Each structure stands twice: as C-alpha cells, then as structure tokens.
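Aim 2 progress update. The chain analyzed this quarter is reproduced below.
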Amino acid sequence: MTTLVTGATGFVGSHVARQLLAAGHRVRVLVRRSSNQRALDGLAVERTEGDLCDLTSLDRAMRGVRRVFHVAADYRLWARNPQEIYETNVEGTRRLFEVAAQAGVERIVYTSTVATIAVPSHGGALPSEQTRATLDQMIGHYKRSKFLAELEAMKAAAAGVPVVIVNPTAPVGPGDWKPTPTGRILVDFLNGKMPAYVDTGLNVVGVEECAAGHLLAAERGRIGERYILGGRNMTLKQILDALAVITGRPAPRVRLPHAVALAAGYADELFARITGREPQIPVEGVKMSRHRMFVASDKAERELGYKPGAVEASLETAVRWYEEQGYIRAGARRKSVAHAQAA
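Predicted structure tokens:
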C-alpha cells in the first residue's frame, strides 16, 4: 500500500513519514525543488517533485496511492506577500482534495491547527472540537488561511471525500529544523535571549505522540470529524520553568506587558520590511499571545486511543536535539550539558 505524505520535509510531516515507514507502509513524499530535505535523510521514501499549486504534479504524486496525509502548510506569521500563504494553504488544499477524490483515495488525514478551535470562550469551558469559531476570530493571515482550508476539508467530507481532520497543538521534540515558532521559544531560552516573558499559554505536545495521532486518525477517525492532538495546557512561564529545571539556566522573572511587546513587534516588522529579513517578533504572534490557547483534547483519547506522553520528556528531548544540531551557542550549550552530566 502506497501512502502519500505532503509536508514530509517539515517538523510534524517528517515524523508522520517516519512512523508510517516503521509501520510497514510504502511512503511517497511530495517535495518542492526548493525544499530543504534534510529531515528525510536516512528515510527510505519515494520522493516525487511537485507543488500544491501544480495540478499535474499532484496527479502524478497521487497515482497508486490509497492514503494521503496532507501535512504541508505555509506556516509563517509574517510574509511580504500574504497571498502566498492563502495560495498554498487554501487553494493548494482544495486542489489536493479534488485530485485525491478523482484518484479514488480511501482516506485523507488533513492536518489543520488548534488555532481554528482555541478561541476565547465564554462560560469558562475550554474550547474543544465542538467549538465553532468564526473567521473574524482568526488573528493574522496564517490562522485565517488555515480556518478557510479547514472549511474546504469539511466541504469535501460533506461531498463524500473521505477526509478526517486533525488539529495539532504546539509540538516539541527532535527534528524541528526550521525551527517552528514554538521551537524558537526554546532556542531563544537556551541561548539566553529571553530576559522577560509575556502572560500567555499553549497546549504543548510531544511531536512523536502528535505524529502517532495522525496514524490513529487514519485508522479510526470518523470522516468529517476533527480531533485535537494535544498534550498539556501550560502557561509560557510554566514552560520556561520546566526548561530551567532541564537545563540549569534561570527562567526569566520579568513579565513583559503586552503593549510593550506589541510596540517592539511593530518596530521589528518595520525594520524587516526595510531589510527583507524575517522579523524576530512578528506582530501576529504578539497579538495571538493575548489569549491563552488552552483546549480540551480528550476526544482523540476516547475515539482514537490517542495517548499523549509526558511533556517534560519531550521538552528534554528537544533541548538535547537543539544542542546536538548546533542551535545553541557554545557558552550556553556547555552550561546545559554540564547540568545534564551532573544530574
């Protein structure tokens, strides 16, 4: 059985491909010519060049495929041309569903995001798969594009296309080459670049458990349903405190007002537009941080048999991986390694 994975050069997608191979699947991956493919090093996958915006390449990639894991997305909180994000995340997803339906694919697992669910709730209950957010509640182009793409997935499922939706939270662990925005928090902390923190929160999950949830969704998920693949709700301060225990580095004690962080974000984006480099403090990210993205994620446990692991173990694995791959400057790395050896 050939299984197609899009986004296999990315963080979650590479783990999905790895676990499919371990389960005995023949795996084909759709890769762009410009993609950095180091996440696939050592994996016995069939690589086919193409793009979500190219129908011919999608048709070629889909031949002989029974299952599709559509993990690919343009995950940027800032872009000079935001339309690029919509072209990939919305139009590319719609094209993929159309081609998969024509090819007679038996099951598609579409990777959405918890951002389409984790919106401010009234009454105290945590957002869950039953939460119906609106486009107006989505902050920034990335969130809006993923919200619209999820609507495409629901529309396809209603039309008979066998789509199951998964909504990962904030994955951490090895193989975060880019790194992701969550991974950037870890790297900045490890390099001593986080003197203060903002009052926000995330649901953190180990990337291996998140990938395993994708495979469970393919086997047991109900068509048209959403499944949050989450772990533990943690404030940013709790995450930094956990990293302090792991590394021996002190956690920041100063809480930065959102207004100050937002002003810094606008200044950084202005500089980014002048220089062309990606901003270190995306305004969209600061705006998102005003709301704690906490969710209830027990539906996947009940219906799929999904089991999130200990977040501390995933954070520690991520720290060691960033150290081994050279993301941590020498002085900070020595301190962290010395602490690990003493432990």
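The domain at 2-172+205-231+295-309 is CATH 3.40.50.720 (Rossmann fold). The mean pLDDT is 89. These observations will guide the mutagenesis experiments scheduled for the next reporting period.
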